[in-house]
């Protein structure tokens, strides 16, 4: 058993490999995220951002591949989407539509009736905002 009986895991913070930390932080700050921490403070190689309880870590490619050499041949962006649940999807869309090129505009899905929109960040990560409760 991965987690001992009676204990549980309660958080998942993705640590995303990025090419340009300053560009990434500016992008996420423009979406409304706050920078909670960055190391070192000047010319950071790692940062933690947060928006309404959603936390994402970013690490520069040189720093991350020094820690995990297996990632040296990997491209930023990954084969994944970051699905973000929020009852305020329209509020985030208004801000994002000014700042970003959208992959999918705000709309209601045929398959589950959720209001959603999708964008791509500077490193190719796909952020999928949805009001669908899971």
TrEMBL record:
Residues 8-132 form the VOC domain. Pfam families: Glyoxalase (PF00903). It comes from the Bacteria. InterPro entries: Glyas_Bleomycin-R_OHBP_Dase, Glyas_Fos-R_dOase_dom, VOC_core. This is VOC domain-containing protein. It comes from Maritalea porphyrae.
